[in-house]
Design goal:
This protein has 207 residues and is of the alpha/beta class. It is 31% helix and 19% strand. α4 packs parallel to α5.
């Protein structure tokens, strides 16, 4: 995987101090604890606003997490493309049907440490179901799923429990979504918590 700001000794320390300062003055609390596992998929939910990225980065630095995150390839165009990659971004071309799941599984298999953040909605727009790419990646790579969250109602963001996918997607997705039942996004009306579990099977890829 490419080098990021999280690999830069002096800068990452300064960014962590800045992140802790910003969280404090903005009235946000970080919750949870860092897992011992070296590799996992991290859900970022709810994803209903551009502000989610800002707070996710703050929380990552606060926990000393080295994360990679997937984003629409259009945000990686010049002049900010290099900066977005340095911040841990991985461009995803949603206009092409590429095998992103298998490619990401290979990344996990070829790296001793790897944390990839994936918003299950796949977009900040209102959706009727969660995409299941993150689940297939975790299950295929044999890594757990960390339930990360941003609760704008409580002004709290952090790391929930680790979830180990069993392969029974209906049951697992229901349990995962239950964790977020009391989490409020910045735009609550855009975060669907009542989608039919059968809808999950319609979308395998995160792209």
């Amino acid at each position: 995987m490419h080098k990021t700001v999280f690999d830069t000794p002096v800068i990452k320390t300064l960014f962590r101090l800045l992140s802790l300062f910003l969280l404090k003055i903005l009235g946000w609390e970080k919750e949870g604890s860092l897992p011992l596992e070296k590799k996992y998929v991290m859900i970022a939910a709810p994803h209903t606003s551009n502000w989610d990225f800002f707070y996710t980065i703050l929380i990552a630095f606060a926990f000393k997490l080295k994360i990679f995150w997937m984003g629409k390839n259009t945000i990686f165009k010049k002049p900010f493309g290099s900066l977005m990659k340095w911040m841990g971004g991985i461009p995803v071309n949603r206009s092409k049907s590429n095998n992103l799941v298998d490619e990401t599984i290979a990344w996990f298999n070829n790296n001793e440490r790897l944390i990839i953040v994936i918003p299950p909605e796949g977009t900040r727009k209102k959706t009727t179901y969660w995409k299941t790419g993150f689940y297939h990646i975790a299950y295929g790579a044999g890594v757990p799923i960390l339930l990360g969250y941003m609760d704008y109602k409580r002004k709290a963001g952090g790391l929930g429990p680790l979830f180990h996918p069993t392969g029974s997607i209906d049951d697992d997705m229901a349990r995962i979504r239950n964790f977020y039942s009391n989490v409020t996004g910045k735009n609550p009306d855009m975060f669907n918590q009542k989608a039919d579990v059968a809808e999950y099977k319609k979308e395998k890829y995160v792209a």
